[in-house]
Amino acid sequence: MRTFIYARISTELQGVENQIEAISKFVEANGWEATQVFSDIGMYTQRDEMIDQIKQSTEEGRIVIWSFNRISRDPGHLIELAKILRKHNFTIISATEGSYENIEFSLHWNQIFKDYDPDLSDRLRENMLQAARKKDESE
Predict the structure, then answer these.
(1) Are the C-beta atoms of residues 78 and 110 closer than 8 Å to each other?
(2) Which helix H or strand E contains 94, and what residues bound it?
(3) Is there a single domain that holds both residue 91 and residue 124?
(4) Taking the model in full, what pTM does it have?
(5) pLDDT mean for each 10 residues of the chain (139 residues)
(6) Residue 38 CB neighbour total at 10 angstroms
């Protein structure tokens, strides 16, 4: 399974190296080997290159990030990214927040949409609750 590390900082003052080092330790602790490291300062040029590689990939993979807000804060982009990841059998894992199936990510995602589209936010929250209820009933 391919493992990409993706780190992004807003300004050069933050130091992308610290994020890469922390993510690398997380990857090692889980027994994975990083296939490639991508990093951006501000704009998303490396992220777009990483997405292109995912689209060309013929094997499953994962993207490991520091936190979900590092991959994007744009709800439209997050939706498109989720579609691409699903289509190409990639998952995204935060070193600090778990996998995207994790409830914390769902809550983070919901907060993003709340500012973007309150009606969509309410529908997403209700869908998450229904899915959790169904899972509880099946166990």
Answers:
(1) no
(2) strand 90-94
(3) no
(4) 0.68
(5) 87 78 94 90 75 86 85 72 84 80 53 59 63 62
(6) 21
Domain containing 114: what range?
A: 102-139
> Is the torsion defined by CA of 10, 114, 65, 25 positive or negative?
positive
Which strand (E) or helix (H) includes residue 118? helix 118-138
DSSP 8-state secondary structure symbol assigned to residue 60: -
- Asked if 87 and 116 sit in the same domain, the reply is no
pLDDT of residue 102: 47
Query: CB neighbours (10 Å) of residue 69?
Result: 14
Q: Are residues 40 and 74 in the same domain?
A: yes
Beta pairing partners, 126: none
pLDDT of 30 reads 93
Same domain, 96 and 119: no
The CATH code of the domain that includes 81 is 3.40.50.1390
Closest alpha carbon to 39 in 78, 12, 77: 12
